[in-house]
Amino acid sequence: MAYTELAQQNPLRVLNMSKGSQMGLVMARAGSGKTALLVQIALDAILRGKRVIHVSVGQGIDKTKAWYDDILQLILQDHSVDRPHELIDMVGRHRMIMTFLASSFSRARLEERLNDLVLQDIFRPNCLIVDGLDFASTDREALEDLKNLLEAMNLQAWFSATHHRQDPRVSPRGVPAPCHEVDDLFDTVILLDSQADASIELQIINNSGEAAVVGKELRLDPTTMMVKER
Amino acid sequence: MKNDLSKVRNIGISAHIDSGKTTLTERILFFTQRIHAIHEVRGKDGVGATMDSMDIERERGITIQSAATRCSWKDYAINIIDTPGHVDFTIEVERALRVLDGAVLILCSVGGVQSQSITVNRQMTRYKVPRIAFINKCDRTGANPERVVHQLRDKLGLNAVMVQMPIGLESDLEGMVDLVAMEAVYFDGDQGEELRREAIPAHLLDEAKAKREELLDAVSMFSDELMELVLEEGDIPEELIQDAIRKGTLSLELTPVMIGSAYKNKGIQLLLDAVTAYLPDPTDIENIALDLKEEEAENKVSNNPADPLVALAFKLEDGRYGQLTYIRTYQGEIKKGDTIVNSRTGKKAKVGRLVRMHADEMEEIEGAGSGDIVALFGIDCASGDTFCAPELNWSMSSMHIPAPVISLAIKPVDNKAQINMSKALNRFTKEDPTFKTYVDHETSETIISGMGELHLEVYIERMKREYKADVEVGAPQVAYRETITQQADFDYTHKKQTGGSGQFGRVAGILEPVEEGEYEFVDQIVGGAIPREFIGSCDKGFRKSLEKGTLIGAPITGVRVTINDGAYHAVDSSDVAFQLAAIGAFRQGYGKASAVIMEPIMKVAIEGPSEFQGAIMGSINQRRGVIIGTFEEGNYTVVEAEVPLAEMFGYSTTLRSLTQGKAEFTMEFSTYKQVPKGLADELVKAFNEQKKES
Predict the structure, then answer these.
(1) What predicted TM-score, i.e. pTM, was given to this entire model?
(2) Which of B551, B553, B545 is nearest to B479 (CA)?
(3) Is the ipTM beyond the 0.90 threshold?
(4) Structural domain count of chain B
(5) pLDDT at residue number B133
(6) Do B454 and B548 share a domain, yes or no?
(7) Which of A50, B347, B581, B646 would staple A126 via disulfide (CB 3.0–4.6 Å)?
(8) Looking at the structure, do residues B195 and B141 belong to the same domain, yes or no?
(9) Which of the four pLDDT bands, split at 50, 70 and 90, describes residue A211?
């Protein structure tokens, strides 16, 4: 099977983030599959020929790489691909992992790193994944700053944020704290909602005013954390 | 002979280069009263530290060979294996880990968990070695043990918990708070030999209480009794905490962290106490031997001195007294005059002199009990061999030995050098299974191969110094391989009818790539198209074909050969005829199977100040490297990448000039990958030109 077919069969196609510098957000409680979903979004982009930088705040290179390896294995189990090793190599060449200790991450540092890569023509990313950013201690100004950077570099980005059960605050669009006051900065917000049967539903909220229902319902399989259509 | 195994510790000391491992070992030997002066690694007195017995090590300030040494602490006997720190000598580290029961992982309080610590930790995990961590150099500017503990948790995934807390840091380091006893400990006297225990200074009391709380939280998991006392907030006896720490350490679920400064003689005695209290004795560790009489059935070694002997030769040294073989006994006893059998060769040997080693000095002994580490004289064997009592034929499970990835040609300058060189090579190949040597029949050159540039450099140095063998060294060569990428069939008839008896054989079948494994031979001949006696000849012919590929003459791997048809002649078919038919058949199939060249890819980790990250990544990119990721913490950064070995020659010089000498790198073999088309064409062209010339 060709890679483009793999990408077309991906249920995440419904997210339709094909334009340049859009921002997306994945929100869930701790341990509900945020990283798994982000990695699937990244792999979807890679299969469509994009280059992805995965910024991981607080997690090491090995752990982050393990997520990709595991999910790629699951994809290879479900779909027969002619030369699996070539696919694994291709993913390696189209992905770069940047990990920071929480205190070391800042817009300035990120910009410096991205410039290092682009100016020396080492790696030209199309998509940025930012996993582990602490939204509770990131103010609106910092996020706007990041958004400007992404626009200037024509980068699409996906963030993850953790919300806590005890915190009842929620935005008019239905985005819970700590992102309830910055939700307008994101074009798409996905809430991961644990169901009674242990599966996790993807609730997609669009900013553009389009219908939030995307035709098919998506959920995460609780054993593999893979996105499936219901 | 000390027979109480609960009082024996076989430990290793592993660390990143320059973390102060040799200094620490030296201090341990000093405090255990075996040597009377402390020599610095790069000391001005020219004596050098006791454990580094080789000249090169003294000059470079690194430890290459693991020497075993014995010392006593209180009523415990401690055997210390000094392990090498550079990744190029990984086999030595791994072999040493094999015979250890426990280890001390040394970390620099400034540098923290560095790439080498990660490699060593992975190896310790593989061999299930319980460990305690020692954060050294707490007297240095920038010392931050807390940060190192966090790194132990984040980067190494260890459940690290401090059992001590520093009193002062950097140049103000005075001593430490023992969080188990809740006392302050100071080190008086010229060399810190007098321990002074006092009440914890008032200004540190709150912090110490909080830290102790953390410690109790972590270790109470391993003792119900302790858990209850903690919940009841009752008085907790020291022994109970120590037992829980020991239990956690042995189960590999806890890593107690000690601190100190070996150079300033602070914390060594407490570390020795911890070694005896928390690290396992030989009976705590399960070791498996394979019974060669019973199809390698697994047997647990008993540690019982009354049982027949099982011992592993883990280290050979050619010293001024002749060949010395370091062994670790797993059960039984070894005594002067005993007959022992090498289970690999079946050869018997008589135990002559038996010694206990203290680096360069030795103590004659009559015998040694199980769980001990001693050295034998005059025994011929290779490292990794198992010795048993005559009634047993067991082998300690084989070790994982990586294949060499780099080779170079060496040429002796004169006749004398020639003789000495072969002596040296003979010795090195016995000592180090990752070091290989052979003569290339086409060029008549002697080729040596190993795990990296530095690995081979060290052996060439040793040849010159220890064996007076001056050799000219060729440029390093990468160990390329060839493989096929698609299935192809073959049908080849070998026929020769010129005078004398003729030759005839026909072989048909398919070649196909296999991802794992080097070569598989499948026989699907039915109806006797090829007689049974010639099937082996076909296999032999195919194996011969694998030695040299047709693209660049590199060995071929990853091929499955299936034969399914053939023909023979009642008179003219022979072993040779079918071997030649198989060679012809392979060549025919290989030409159609889209053969490619593979090259070794190294996993490289470069670390240094963040300001150089761009330059480092640029240098990787220029070398056809793929950057896996970067890690940043404060002003310190690590770049991990996969780079072809062929591009890594001379990288240390490049890196030094790029980063003003502030960055360093380690590399280890990762995998083989296909060489890009353009480069492959160049290799083929060069090979063909070379062939024409000769």
Answers:
(1) 0.66
(2) B553
(3) no
(4) 5
(5) 93
(6) no
(7) A50
(8) yes
(9) very low
